[in-house]
Amino acid sequence: MADEAPFQFLHHEMIQHVYRSAADGEPETGRNVSRLENLGFRVGQGLVERLTKDTARFKDELDIMKFICKDFWTCVFKKQIDNLRTNHQGIYVLQDSTFRLLNHLSAGKQYLDHAPKYLAFSCGLVRGGLSSLGVKSIVTAEVSVMPACKFQVMIQKM
Predict the structure, then answer these.
(1) CA 62 to CA 122: how far, in whole Å?
(2) CA R_g for the chain
(3) 149-155 and 137-142 beta bridge pairing
(4) Each residue's pLDDT tens digit, 13-46
(5) Which long-range contacts (CB under 8 A, 24 or more apart) does 17-25 make?
């Protein structure tokens, strides 16, 4: 529990820094979200490289996604993904009913429009982690009720 607060503060300050540095009167065009996602991508790459240095190769895409949902998610968010679903055609949905980085926001709907900036780094984490494992993907997130979150991972075939 003690290591939870510094991660949340760092995440919040990172968001504030990115939005403050771009707040020179220019409208939000998605560039800030892209910057946060790219930061997460690099962190996800490094983290997965470290987590998998002593493990055997994964045999298929589903094993890779199970690793992301169990080991990777536990390392970053101190809990496993609550639900993993797939259509067996390259689309996976990861559901977290109490997403840690949204817990500090109100459970009401008034902050739903702020959710993308709090989820961009996490989307990048997942995409970067998958990239380190040789899986090219597109990761998006959606929130319908705070703090529950769904991450959709679309695997891009090479």
Answers:
(1) 20
(2) 16
(3) antiparallel
(4) 888 888 787 766 666 668 888 999 999 999 999 9
(5) 19/117
Q: Quick check: pTM over 0.90?
A: no
Phi-psi region of 25 (alpha: psi -120 to 50; beta: other; left: phi over 0): left
Site of tokens 């995409």:
127
For the chain, the average pLDDT equals 87
Which tokens go with 10?
């760092």
Comparing CA positions, the residue from 40, 46, 52 lying closest to residue 127 is 40
Q: What is the largest CA-CA distance in the chain?
A: 50
Q: Tell me the three-class secondary structure of the chain, residue by residue.
A: CCCHHHHHHHHHHHHHHHHHHCCCCCCCCCHHHHHHHHHHHHHHHHHHHHHCCCCCCCCCHHHHHHHHHHHHHHHHHCCCCCEEEECCCCEEEEEECCCHHHCCCCCCCCCHHHHHHHHHHHHHHHHHHHHHCCCCEEEEEECCCCCCEEEEEEECCC
Q: How far is CA 64 from CA 3, 4, 24, 116, in A?
A: 27, 26, 42, 25
